[in-house]
Amino acid sequence: MSKTIKLCCSESLQRFGFNSYSIFSRALSSLSKRDIATKNKVYHIQNVMLKKWILRTLPALMDLE
User: Fold this and answer.
1) What does the alpha-carbon distance between residue 50 and residue 47 come to, in Å, rounded to a whole number?
2) How many other CB atoms sit within 10 Å of the CB of residue 27?
3) 24 Cβ partners below 8 Å, 6+ apart?
4) Among 3, 24, 29, which Cα is nearest to 12's?
5) How does pLDDT run across 11-48, given as a tens digit for each residue?
6) Rg of the Cα trace of the chain?
7) Where are the alpha helices (DSSP H) in 1-65?
8) N or C: which end of the chain has fewer CB within 10 A?
9) Residue 4 DSSP code
10) Looking at the predicted structure, is the pLDDT value of residue 65 above 60?
11) In the chain, where are the structural domains located?
């Protein structure tokens, strides 16, 4: 089972501490270069522990409005 989380709208990026899309894009590129994430139209987190942490953490962060 795969979960897709859309983070690319400006409100979501700001909520998670990214001031601009370019900073977020550089972070994803860095993860991709390290084979932590792959991109096939969308980014996929390859590291199981990071993926679990993101899925556990994002709902809590999204509730902090």
Assistant:
1) 5
2) 12
3) 7, 8, 13, 18
4) 24
5) 777 777 788 888 888 888 898 898 888 888 878 888 88
6) 12
7) 10-15, 21-33, 48-62
8) N
9) -
10) no
11) 10-62
